[in-house]
Amino acid sequence: MTGINMNVKNRLQSLLIRPGDLNAFFGLVVDNMTQLVIMAAILVGIFQFPREIVYGRMIPGSAIGVFVGDLAYTIMAIRLARRTGRSDITAMPLGIDTPSLFAFTFGVIGPAYVATNDAALAWKISTAVIILVGLVKTAGAFLGPMIQRAVPRAGLLGPIAAVALLLIAFLPLLKIIQMPLVGFFSLIVILTCIVGKIPFPFRIPAAFAAVVLGILLSHLLGLFGLGHEAALHETAAGALPLPTLAFLEGLPHVLAYLPIALPFAIIVIIGGIDVTESAAAAGDEYDTRSILLTSGLSTVASGLCGGVVQTTPYIGHPAYKEMGGGAGYTLATALFIGLAGIFGFLGNVVDLLPEAAVAPILVFIGLEITAQAFAATPKEHYKAVAFAFLPVIAAVILIQMNSLLGNLGKSSSDLQGETALTYQAMLFLSNGFIVSSLLWGGALAEIIDRRLRRAALFFGAAGALALFGVIHSPFEDGRLFFPWGIETIYPFRIAAAYGLMAAFLVGMAFQRNQDKSR
Predict the structure, then answer these.
(1) Residue stretches of the chain with pLDDT short of 50
(2) Is 499 exposed, middle or buried (0-12, 13-18, 19+ CB in 10 A)?
């Protein structure tokens, strides 16, 4: 019997299935479920989209993208382990891209429904947009390794650290502070047992224990009117998401929505490069092109099956590695999300989870990635990593400002005076923040290394991208544009400002060369 148990254990190890996969699975699957349920809530609750299309077409198709992507990353991890002879490989996590989820629901799917008053056509338009986004990402995969070689590690990891700390860790912290009895209790379990590496009693996976205990405490407090009250919403039955050519009917209508969607394809390409670099810094060197191709092709698969959101490699690889995850957690996530989308029970599962009990896992992931970004960057480049945080800070503040305005029944057009100018500055700084963070961090790293001409290239690229709205778009939806086709002169001003910075660096480089030649 012992021999049989050893064979089973060895077989599981060869497939990179480890006890830590339970912790990692819980973090990844909850994240993905939450994204899909948020999408459904926006479309059904705000835009009055028919539930049968959202739950019967959009969610199952979007879940297929997660299924395909996480399954591919599982296979990559196993192959990497066999090629290197290592058993500590962690699969790259993949899921629904959060920023584009909101952009596509509010900027593509909902407006298409409002414009056409035809839910089926709006769905077809949205799937066509997703397929085109996936094709752009697939093409961009072939540029990924070149960008990775050209940009210093501070530029690649700086945006990831900023997103991790400010979007993944800080925003969930607001949920924790709203329900402190539940949130702080779950948080101390995470900090003690995962960050502090002190085993939870009976070797129970700490993330699992933190969430389960948080749920129990929340519902216990609910008996006294102090906790989370689960409300199970009726959901439409799911449907088998088979590939369809329905998107062809939406193609003639996509031009109006591509300026909104394509910047997010570019952001995911850059983000995919960043997370590959992050995984390499944690010890798992994946092929950048393969990671990006999987993101693009899984997005195409999602659109072909009726999905309306894009997939992306998540930035949490180092944290999932710290949890002890191998390849089992991505395999389990692929199967769970795929089945959940098909059978339509995503909403009811998430309804049972108080946010304050789940949020501490995200706080840990944010802390782990931020720490890893600094650890994997040369000490002299720390200032460049910190510099890359600034556009992301603007994005976080803008999110909170828009939430406040929305709850007051106001919009940015109601702001006046200095407040209106501050809001506009936040908008400029936050639009395209992943790309601008990369360019800023990379430029400062080059300046620190006294490679001034290379730094000038980063700022010159920033100026060119600003002309078309890839970064610093003056529009609230962050759309792209041709500079001669809009009324505002801001893109020319910001491009000129970047050009002035580049010119100064070139002049300084010339002066240094002159001094050396004397």
Answers:
(1) 1, 8, 232
(2) middle
